[in-house]
Amino acid sequence: xxxxxxxxxxxxxxxxxxxxxxxxxxxxxxxxxxxxxxxxxxxxxxxxxxxxxxxxxxxxxxxxxxxxxxxxxx
Length: 74
Hints:
This protein has a domain at 35-65. Helix content is 53%, strand content 5%. It is built from three helices and two strands. The chain has helices at 2-22, 28-34, 49-59, and strands at residues 37-38, 45-46. A two-stranded antiparallel sheet has the order 1-2. A hairpin with a 6-residue loop joins strand 1 and strand 2. The longest helix has 21 residues, at 2-22. It holds the Pfam family SERF-like_N.
């Protein structure tokens, strides 16, 4: 009988913990703020020019690489 009560208490505690976790802060806005450059060919978001350059050379080798200042913000 005691185990039944302990089980119910553990389940209630778990539900409370999950409710707190679900109501936590979302990192979507923080992530979106970090992605400042978008690829003009495929519109993939990048965090900086170095990542953009690596992506562009790997995914779009036939296209000329845009200059750093001409890459539009996402």
